[in-house]
Amino acid sequence: MPFVRNCWYVALWSEDLHSGAIENRIILSEPVVFYRDQQGQPVALFDICPHRFAPLSKGRLLPGGGIACGYHGLEFGADGTCIRNPHGDRIPNRAQVKRYPLVEQDSLIWIWMGDQTPDPALIPRYDFLDPVNGYTVTSRETLTMPCDYRLIVDNLLDLSHINFLHDGILGHADAPRADISVTTGDRWVEVTRISRNLPVPALFAMLLNDGSERGDLWNTIRWDLAGCLKNDALVCPVGADRNDGDGIFGAHLLTPVTEETTLYHIAAARQKTARAGSETSEEVRQRLGELRRFAFEMQDQPMIAAQAEIMRKYPEATHHPVFLEIDTGPAQAQAIIKRHIAAENSPA
Ligand code: FES
Ligand SMILES: [Fe+2]
User: Fold this and answer.
1) Which CATH topology does 127-345 take?
2) Ligand 1 contact, 54 CB (< 6 A)
3) Contact 165, 305 (CB under 8 A)
4) Atom of ligand 1 at shortest range from CA of 70
């Protein structure tokens, strides 16, 4: 399996788990049921009833914060233990389901799929998404991508593609050269690209709204094991300091469903909500969301889907990719993923 288990993944946007509702997801090829208990805290349990394997997500919530199987009525507490067998007095030992650790933070519900003790400090922060911080945030979207999550990590850590695939919207095909720097840690990679003196791409022109025709594009993308990416993209006047720019923070949160499908959670926030003369209207918020959705859904998704299909069909022809200057960041991330998978699967 190409999955790192001992790390945090986004299970759901907080706003997608309503009180009294039951949601289900496949995460790392495991079915998981989600709901909120009486205090509103999110709960995640293995979504297979140990009796006859009905999905608990087809059951009903109990007043005490548990869930009852919809087939023969076994009742489970929020910790996954069976608390009632309506057919007799005995509760069999094996009548229990796994409970997954969750943390709700920055308008996201994070899940830990591994066996090691979860460390909430490892969850990367996306504080620009938290409503209390006052940023103008686009709608929170969830796209289904027909590919291995690692192809999307490659896509995002090599932002040179914005100049070609997103020509005019996020970058410019006649300005592909950039100063690139890459820094790494045990569980993260950060790539910064600076493209000098290029025509201001449409998304940034809309935010700047000052008629600037050319600018410097600063783009930093940070990846945290295994599917968390945060983008800080801004344009500033040619030759100016980065702090003089304006742009967006982007959240790109990948949750592997299977080896061939990935849930892609995206949202962006306006960086300088109160910049003098900047536009922060609802119209701009919506337009920003639409432009980004267009870029990811109409440009990235078909390209990555086509790439994934070719790699599936022609494994030998695609075994050994050509390496360019732009590939250092993605290669570092893939090496970290490989190392963690190997460590998790090596005998203790
Ligand atoms: S399948 Fe759940 S109680 Fe029978
Ligand atoms: Fe892209």
Assistant:
1) Naphthalene 1,2-dioxygenase Alpha Subunit; Chain A, domain 1 (3.90.380)
2) yes
3) no
4) 2
As annotated, the residues of the chain forming the CATH 3.90.380.10 domain(s) are 127-345
Segment 78-102 shows an average pLDDT of: 97
Nearest to 274 by CA among 128, 135, 137: 135
How many CB atoms are closer than 10 A to CB 16?
A: 15
Q: Reply yes or no on whether the pLDDT at 326 is more than 80.
A: yes
CATH of 8-122, one of 3.40.50.720, 2.102.10.10, 2.40.50.100, 1.20.1740.10: 2.102.10.10
Cite the residue boundaries of each domain of the chain with CATH code 2.102.10.10. 8-122
Ligand 1 atom 4: the closest Cα is on which residue?
A: 72
Structure tokens at 244: 């003089």
Q: Is-contact 79 61, C-beta < 8 A?
A: no
Q: How far apart are CA 251 and CA 249, in angstroms?
A: 7
The terminus-to-terminus CA distance of the chain in angstroms comes to: 18
**E strand residue ranges, 163-245:** 179-184, 188-199, 214-224, 228-236
What per-residue confidence (pLDDT) applies to 276? 47
Atom of ligand 1 nearest to the CA of 54: 1
Query: Which amino acid, one-letter code, is at 67?
Result: I
Residue 346 has pLDDT above 70, yes or no: yes
